[in-house]
Every structure is written in structure tokens, then in C-alpha cells.
């Protein structure tokens, strides 16, 4: 699997575009629960676009989320993101 371009270690990263309604909705749902993320616009970052395509069968599908453990999810519901983050926190305790 490819490694994420522009992904800071230890942060939740969302690959997005400026026009993506699903991205805006997911970001606001997570922010309501105090979950903030690093956003990378794949239209402005060619390496990020290549990464997103590499994990989505050649398609530039957003939102693509990369978790601190390297797990990647494409267009996940906020509930799934929260559940995975909780499992990562529990595993680190």
C-alpha cells in the first residue's frame, strides 16, 4: 500500500476537495464531537491525489480518511470514524 502524502504522524487526515459536500458534512459532524483533522486538498496537491487514487482503485474519491495507525477509509460515516478512533485509543492504553 502507498504511504500518504502530506500526512502528519499521529493525526487524523482527510483528503478532500473544495467542492465536496460529503467532506464538509463529515468534517462538521466530527468537529461537533471535538474530533479535528488535518485537511489535504487533492486538487492543490498532486502527490495527495496520487495517494488517494492508489488506495481507491485508481479513483480520486473523497473524503478519504487516514488514521494515525495508517488505516484508510473512503467516504466513511462519522460514527465509523469515531468508533475506529476509540478502538485506537483503547489499544494504546
Summarize the structure.
This protein is an alpha+beta fold.
Protein topology:
Elements: E1 13-16, H1 21-32, E2 38-41, H2 46-55, E3 64-66, E4 72-74, H3 78-92
Describe the model:
By secondary structure, this protein is of the alpha+beta class. The protein has one domain: Glutaredoxin. The chain is built from three helices and four strands; from the N terminus they run βαβαββα. It has a four-stranded mixed β-sheet with strand order 2-1-3-4, covered by helices on one side. The longest helix has 15 residues. It is globular, with a radius of gyration of 12 Å. About 5% of the residues have low confidence.
CATH architectural type: 3-Layer(aba) Sandwich
Q: Would you identify the regions where 5 or more consecutive residues have pLDDT less than 50?
A: 5-9
Strand content: 15-25%
Oligomer: single chain
User: What structural class is derived from the secondary structure elements?
Assistant: alpha+beta
CATH class label: Alpha Beta
Amino acid at each position: 500500500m502507498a504511504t500518504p502524502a502530506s500526512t502528519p504522524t499521529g493525526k487524523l487526515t482527510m483528503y478532500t476537495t473544495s467542492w465536496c459536500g460529503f467532506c464538509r458534512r463529515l468534517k462538521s459532524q466530527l468537529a461537533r464531537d471535538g474530533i479535528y483533522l488535518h485537511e489535504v486538498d487533492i486538487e492543490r496537491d498532486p502527490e495527495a491525489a496520487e495517494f488517494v487514487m492508489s488506495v481507491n482503485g485508481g479513483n480520486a474519491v473523497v473524503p478519504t480518511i487516514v488514521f494515525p495507525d495508517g488505516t484508510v477509509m473512503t467516504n466513511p460515516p462519522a460514527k465509523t470514524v469515531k468508533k475506529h478512533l476509540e478502538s485506537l485509543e483503547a489499544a494504546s492504553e
